[in-house]
Amino acid sequence: MTSVDRSPRPGVVAPARGSAPRAAAGGATPRGSRRGYDGWWPVLFVLPTMFGVVLFYLWPIVQTGWFSLTEWGAFGGQTWVGLENYQRLARDPDLGTAVVNTLVYTAIVLLGIPIAMFVASLLHRPGMRFTAFYRVLYFMPYVAMPTAVAMVWRLIFNGDFGILNQALAVVGIDGPSWTSTPGFALVAVSVVGLWTSLGFAIIILSAGLRTIPPELYEAASLDGASAWRQFRSVTVPLLTPSVFFVTVITVINGFQLFDLLYALMGQANPAMQKTQSLVYLFYNEAFLRNDKGFAAAIAMVILLIVGAVTLLQFRMQRRWVTYA
Amino acid sequence: MKHLLRSASLAGVAAVALTLSACGGGSDAAEDGAEVAPTDAQAEITYAIWDENQKPAIDQNIKDFNETYPNIKVTVDLTPFQQYFTKLQTQGESRTLPDVFWMNGPNVQLYAANDLLQPITGLVDAGEIDPSKYPDALNQLYSFEDTQYGVPKDFDTVALWYNKALFEKAGVDLPTDDWTWDEFQDAAGAISDELSDQGVYGVVSEINGIGQSSYYNTILQAGGQIISDDGTTSGYDSPEAAEGLQLWADLIADGAAPTLQQMSDTKPNVWFGSGKAAMFWSGNWSVAEMKDSPNKDDFGIVRLPAGPEQRATVIHGVGNVVAADSENKAAANAFLAYLGSEEAQRTQAEMGVANPAYSGTQQAFVDSVPSFGIDVFIDSAEDMAFPYPISQNTAAWNALETELLPQALSGERPVEEVAQELADAMNEELAKE
């Protein structure tokens, strides 16, 4: 990569020589010109997708940005208020709570990645039987409706009649009302979030494991590397691109926590105010309190945070991600 | 505010039934919006509702309506309550509201103030609708700045449900219609003391998020208000309001009622329905559920106990409204008038879906489960009902109640302190209206 570029300078060498393939070893010219030959076709092919992205993602972001600078009447009619919504938001104590809750939730759910890595490696062991069955088993919570999942966990977490507290009672522990006590509620929601996201991480990491050439393990074992050493020096580094992808997706999903929280705790929950996430705060302002301009400001803050965190992750990736 | 009673007697009104056929032949459009379609009118209108349980009765209403108006096609648009008002607000914003739709108290002023609803004044003047046939509190609920916008469809009040078997097991005398707060509190405490080893509590009520069943009533009974009569200031900062809230905080602190967490994990209707609570403050909407409970034979209903100041229950009900922008207003008016008629409301009662608003039609609902004594709800509406507290943007301060009141009811902070904070925040919201 850093070697001196010995190929002729682009402007000097005419493609007429017909030696482009040979020169391609180091020069950018032939690749560049080949791209030029494609003309507008590629653009045409991505147009339908671009149309959707612009219409349903980018344009709404622009609109939300504008709405966040307005006060929204009950039935439309925006009045320009400048940065007032943002000033109000900065003073709102709920914002800090929501940011902290969202970060805690995301951190707990991220703990699922090492667990998923462990499970994926187990599933990848040579001679392992019923792997397809196990994969389905682990993936099922991910494809199940969050509401349905939440309904079942609500019964498990029920303070008076839930199976969790019944089990704890056997060993003499008087368990709390998990989903309606501040503190416990966030942990309960996070545990369920971790459990549901596990399947997705396992599938991605399993696919990542399959791309590691078996010769590497063969060579490592010939060199006398133990199973643990192989895992550390071959599996982990070569899996980092998959881990990176899963981390980015998990963090973005973590910041969008809403449906699980809403379904597991319910709107009228005494612990909700202390457990609410950023998106719940948005929902509360937009749809329960009818303050859509203010809610748009919250949405913009969420966008900025997610954007910044994702950018940071991409910046950091060259420190730990190995692309073979 | 004095009791908002319906002055008209419940008896002997059958004769005054709204005779649609008689006036359907094209009444004069005396005022804007008062025009009612002739019986041979041809039109298609939409009717938006949120309760699936009521769909069969609504379908029957439409069928009967089509006897008189064979060429007006009514399509029912059913949206679950959770999304109903979110959707309606979007429709209101794009001026594409359904022609006729259900409205509730907390939202009516918002729509009326934004000129999205058609006043029923014209129809009343034309004799199509007679407001005196409905409880006054409901007429007032659907009025904004002295103009009525909705026709009451049904109503609900709150009463004291009790479980006879649990009272007997605990050796406590059964509740009566003449109970006071003291007797109620003593009984709740005695039962939970006696039966706590079986996990049974003295009383439960929906207290998380909404006070309609619980503290709205006790605040009124203590002589306080949730919101001032003119809907401009909060009533939470009065000593009476604090007293009404304190009753529930005390019941929870004494263990006579489950904690807020327990009533959030397991809903009050489940505690009572499954025989784990001896008393239940709830409205007539619970009838449909409780009549299917395995303990239904033990259930009885008396009116709410008298507070330090007076007897009281909030009254609320669904109303039918016509959109101001409806393109088929004449047909919509005809349907609105029919829905408010004695015939239509009696059908709803007979099919057991709602406690109808039209005076004299409630008996069918009372008869649906004779052992409960459902007439308590209707008597309460007559004798002790106060309108459900609302303002132009009710949702804004309802969210504040949900946020702040748990801190007071759970004993986490003193009741007066939280009530004062709520009043201040609520006044701030009200000032924006």
What is the compact description of this entry?
The complex is a heterodimer of chains A (about 325) and B (about 425). Chain A has about 325 residues and is mostly helical.
Explain this structure.
- The complex is a heterodimer of chains A (324) and B (433).
- Chain A has 324 residues and is an all-alpha fold.
- Chain A is built from 16 helices and 2 strands.
- In chain A, helix 6 runs parallel beside helix 10 (184-210) and helix 10 packs across helix 13.
- The longest helix of chain A is centred in the C-terminal third of the chain and has 29 residues, at 227-255.
- Residues 1-33 of chain A have low confidence and may be disordered.
- By secondary structure, chain B is an alpha/beta fold.
- Chain B has 2 domains: 18-155 and 316-361, Periplasmic binding protein-like II (D-Maltodextrin-Binding Protein, domain 2, 3-Layer(aba) Sandwich), CATH 3.40.190.10; 158-314 and 385-431, D-Maltodextrin-Binding Protein, domain 2 (3-Layer(aba) Sandwich).
- Chain B contains 19 helices and 13 strands.
- Chain B has a 5-stranded mixed sheet. A 4-stranded mixed sheet of chain B has the order 8-9-7-10.
- In chain B, helix 7 crosses helix 8, helix 9 (215-221) crosses helix 10 and helix 18 runs antiparallel to helix 19.
- The longest helix of chain B has 17 residues, at 415-431.
- The model of chain B is unreliable at 1-31 (pLDDT under 50).
- The A-B interface holds A 73-76, 154, 157-162, 176-177, 179-181, 266-273, 284, 287-291 and B 86, 89, 92-94, 110, 114, 116, 199, 208-210, 258-262, 264-266, 393, 395-396, 398-399, 402-403, 406, 410.
Q: Name the beta content range of chain A.
A: under 5%
Low-pLDDT runs of 5+ residues of chain B are: 1-31
* Count of discrete alpha- or pi-helical segments spanning 4 or more residues of chain A: 16
Oligomer: heterodimer
Give the helix/strand class of chain A: mainly alpha
Give the CATH topology of the domain at 99-320 in chain A: MetI-like fold
Say how many strands of chain A there are. Answer: 2
Provide the spatial order of strands within the biggest beta sheet of chain A: 1-2
CATH topology of the largest domain in chain B: D-Maltodextrin-Binding Protein, domain 2
Proportion in helices of chain B: 40-55%
Q: Write out the CATH superfamily name of the largest domain in chain B.
A: Periplasmic binding protein-like II
Query: What does the largest sheet of chain A look like?
Result: 2 strands, antiparallel
Q: What percent of the residues of chain A sit in helical stretches (DSSP H or I)?
A: over 70%
What is the CA-CA span between the terminal residues of chain B?
22 Å
Query: Total domains of chain B, how many?
Result: 2
Rg of chain A, nearest Å:
26 Å
Q: Note poorly predicted spans of chain A.
A: 1-33
Round the mean pLDDT of chain A to the nearest integer and report it: 86
